[in-house]
Amino acid sequence: MGRGALFGPVCAAAVIMNPQRIPPGINDSKTLSPRRRLKLADEIRMTAEASAVAFVDSSTIDRINILEATRRAMHLAVEKLETRPDYLLCDGDMVVPVPLPQQSIVGGDRRSLSIAAASILAKVARDRLIVDLDARYPGYDLRNNMGYGTRKHRDALKLLGPTPLHRASFRGVCGLDSTGPACGVDNDDPGEGLKNGKSR
Q: pLDDT tens, 23-82?
């Protein structure tokens, strides 16, 4: 979660669902209201056999690029699981660098309950972090834009300059008069993720 943002870390979640205890209403995190996501995140953590969330910070994103940072976050999330998964379902075309069989599923957060559940955990975790950081870095409207390049956020960057947690390699940060992909980096935010290791 957060691949296309100008500010903050990228986040991944890993989930091993219990097929006998799947909370109703799980769907692509982007289609759910914030209140519904919060409720489902709690239910997923309570009912899953294992779950974990991992972050990779903005300085690492700048150093290794957003694609590799996303892959690293996915790897960390899988490694943090208390139960070792047998098989990974990865949203999009991502491959996790772990010695486990895995399958990539384009649009997986709309096609797999496990991927959708992980997308919910990752979005809730990252959103909570960004809201907390809004108090430390006022003026960028982070609470509302979650680090993405809205007009208000871009205007604040022009006025205030970037914080230490902005992604210096991203266009809109390194080129304050422009928006779009990073400076030499693809920062689109497609539905990327992982079932027993989901990047969102």
A: 999 999 989 999 999 999 999 999 999 999 999 999 999 999 999 999 999 999 999 999
Structure-block tokens of residue 85: 């998964």
Collapsed DSSP state (helix, strand, coil) of residue 188: coil
* pLDDT 10s digits, 115-147: 999 999 999 999 999 999 999 999 999 999 999
Tokens, residue 172: 């809109």
Question: Domain boundaries in the chain?
Answer: 10-135+187-199
Q: Sign of dihedral through CA atoms 13, 14, 20, 26?
A: positive
The tokens describing 64, both together, are: 């290794």
What CATH class does 10-135+187-199 carry?
alpha beta
Backbone angles phi, psi at 94, to 5 degrees: -75, 145
Helix 34-47 × helix 113-136 angle, to 10°: 120
Measured between alpha carbons, how far is 46 from 78 in angstroms, rounded to an integer? 18
pTM for the predicted model, two decimal places: 0.86
